[in-house]
Structure formats: structure tokens, C-alpha cells
Amino acid sequence: MPIYFMRGSDIIEDLIITNARLAESGELLDIAVSEGIISQICPAGSKKSAGETIDACGNYISPGFIDLHVHLRDPGLTHKEDIASGTMAAAKGGIATVCCMPNTKPCIDSPEAVRYVLTQNANCNVLPVAAITKEQKGEELTDFAALKRAGAIALSDDGRPVESENVMRKALIEAKKNDMLIMAHCEDLSLSGNESEDEITKRDIDLACETGAKLHICHVSTKKSAGYVARAKAGGHDITAETCPHYFTLTNEDAAKYGANAKMNPPLRSIEDKRGIIEAIKSGVIDIISTDHAPHSKEEKEAGTNGITGLESSFALSVTYLVKPGHIALGRLIELMAKNPAKRLGIDKKKGIERGKAADLVIFDIDEKFIFDKNNSRSKSRNTPFHGFELYGKALCTIVSGNVVYMEGLT
279: helix, coil or strand? Predict the structure, then answer.
């Protein structure tokens, strides 16, 4: 049975992780942690301690994963998820840091709402993403400077697009002035199919190029949108993009098979789009894999609500559908799920397996086959199309700031 530890003030001092295999190089290491910080890294077998010891048994270790796109539903929608349950699900998936989206009730569009998120009980690091516009109505900009001072890591109206080109332009100008990242939900509500995503992706990229602002494109699902990102990057603009596991594992042909649990926004696309997304991951056009974790009750899903859970399946799906078929190497996956997100958020100087950096770590196995069972989820919700899938890639231990918050299969 997995062991869960609620985070608190009792950070383990002098934790030693032995026989851990560095994911990028395969080197076997011992890693010492003191007061939540990596204090020493040395060859396996050379570090001894009278304190707490975890034997990684030769399994891989990497920086804890960072998910840029998570809906924690707190405040106001806690029948779906709350910060404690969502971050416990994250820890089970090897995720040490989540960025939570602002489409809550009330919306995270004020400094008070940002501070509320930051003061809740959490099992991993939580970085609030505040709204671009008040109540996410797409009309009046929020106070970007005040939101940043309160602790907002970025800005997004995710769940809805900023429909007005003029408002989006103003937002990008204001974000640049405050050195903040805009995370764009690209959807033209007047259009359908791929065109809905593609048109606003192009518009927002053009506006970012015009203003010189930092832009991150959320949940890219089409080959054409990935092409717009590629063109902007080739021009030297500060554009990044994410995709989600469902866009490189499923297609629109799977929608009927999995029913309401395969309904999300953007929707599942064609086999050609799926192949285009995989190519964009391989080529570096897509920088980040996130989940767009969107928990809902059974009744809400049956009524047709968009969104699926993803915190506990994202790593395994990525290993199974990207690493195992040879599309990318394991080291590239660590870039997509840990290193690149840290870099995009500007927290990379604090994250990583280096002396002096935060002990946010995940130990994992990529070779043991298992069946993904939604009934074992730590999320409050079960709306996933991946129940019963045979997968590889399992987090065995997740450590956040030196605290073991999840462990299964290790002692």
C-alpha cells in the first residue's frame, strides 16, 4: 500500500537517498538533504547517515515534476477538488509543483484570492495563476502588479479565451511592464473545429511578437497551431507551448469509445494532429507537458462538462506513449516535465539536482507494467478516459522541500 505524508513543519533533516540513478546519465548517486535543501551529491555507496534513509534500489531520480496547468477548484468548487486532495494526487504522480488556474468561485482575480490559495494546506508547492481580466469576463484587466506582489506566478483566463484583440494586446503590454507571463487559452468561440484553436493561437502569437511580451500557449492540440509556435520561435520571440498527454495518446475516434470521460476543451483531434503533436514534442517546438487536470463530479460529466483528470497519469502516459516507442529519450521527458517548466516560470535557479537547490525530487520506475485504476486516485474526482490502461512509468517516492509526501514500493 502507498504511504502518504501530509506536509507540515516537521521537515526531515539529514535525509539520505541512496542508490538513485540519475535519469539523464544513468549515474548511481547518493543524495543528502538537510533542512529541505540538497546538501551533498556523491557516488552511490559513499554516503552514510544515522538519520532517515531511503534506498532508491537503482531506480531513476529526477527533479520533481512541475505542472503548469492544473485546476484545483478551490475556492468555491471543492466538491470536485480542493487544494489538499489535488496536491496529494499530484504527489502520487511525481509532481512536486503545480500552477493552479484562476477559474474558481470566486475567481482568483485579486490579491486576497491569491493569498487564500497560498495559505491552504497543500502536499506540494502551489503557485497561483491569477486572472488576466476581472471575473474572467474578458473586459477589464486585473491589477497585474498587485497580483504579482501577492504571489501570482503568471496570468491566464484559462477556461475562457480573451476574446477581444484589443484587450489581449493591452494585457500583453501590461504583462511585459510587470515582467509577467501570459498563459493563453486559445479559442475563438464563434468558430468550431480546429479553426477555433488555430485562429486565436495565431492572433495571440502575433500580438506577443508585436508587443515583445512573454507568451505561453496552453494545451496545444492541433498540428497547425504547433506550426504557428514553430514560426514564432524561429523568429526569436519569447513564445513557449505546452500539450497534454491526451493529445498524443488519443484521437477523435476514441471519443465515442470513452464517452463523457473523453470530452475536454480543446477536444480530441485527428490522427494527423496527434502525429503533428508528437513531432512538435520531438523537435522542441512544444516545450512542456502539462495535464490541464480538470476534476468534475460524475453528474457534471454525465451532463457534458468538459475536462479530465490527469495528475496521476501524465508521467505514465508520457513514458508509455513517448519514451517506450522511441519518440523521445527519458532525458527529454525530464526536460518537458521538470526542467523546461522551471525555466519558463523563472524558478530554475532553485530547482534541480544540484547542491544548494530545493530537495524537490521524484524517484520512479519506467519498466514495471501496471494497470491504471481510477478507483485508487487521490483526487476527489474520477473523470478519466485512461481507467484500465496498461502503462509504464510509476512514481515510487515524491519529496517536496525535503519532505517525503508520497512513497510506494520503497522503504
Answer: helix
Nearest-CA neighbor of 94 among 120, 59, 51? 59
| pLDDT, tens digit, 9 for 90 and up, residues 265-319 | 999 999 999 999 999 999 999 999 999 999 999 999 999 999 999 999 999 999 9
Q: Is the dihedral of CA 108, 114, 120, 126 positive or negative?
A: positive
Cα separation, 270 vs 272, in Å, equals 5
- 388 conformational bin, left if phi > 0, alpha if psi -120 to 50, beta if neither: left
Burial 114-144 (b: 16+ CB within 10 A, else e): bebbeeeebbbbbbbbbbbbeebebeebbbb
Three-state DSSP class for 126? Answer: strand
- What residues contact 344, with CB distance under 8 A and at least 6 apart? 68, 181, 216, 240, 287, 288
CB 362 within 8 A of CB 93: no
Which residues carry out catalysis? 292
**Backbone angles phi and psi of 136, in degrees to 5:** 55, 35
- The domain locations on the chain are 64-345
Which three three-digit cell numbers place residue 368? 514495471
Give the model confidence (pLDDT) of 323-379 as tens digits.
Answer: 999 999 999 999 999 999 999 999 999 999 999 999 999 999 999 999 999 999 999
- Whether this prediction's pTM lies above 0.90 is answered by yes
Q: Is the pLDDT of residue 13 over 80?
A: no
Element (H, E) at 211: helix 193-211
What phi and psi values does residue 209 have, to the nearest 5 degrees?
-65, -40
Cα-based torsion angle of the residue sequence 281, 285, 206, 143 in order, rounded to the nearest 10 degrees? 70
Per the prediction, the chain carries an average pLDDT of 95
Can you identify the CATH homologous superfamily of domain 64-345?
Answer: Metal-dependent hydrolases (3.20.20.140)
Q: What is the DSSP string of 212-254?
A: T--EEE-S---HHHHHHHHHHHHTT--EEEEE-HHHHH--GGG
- Count of helices and strands (H, E) across the chain: 13, 17
Helix or strand holding residue 258 (H, E)? helix 255-258
Indicate if the pLDDT at residue 9 is higher than 50.
no
Residue 96's SS3 state is strand
- Quote the crossing angle between the two packed helices 271-283 and 223-234, to the nearest 10°: 30
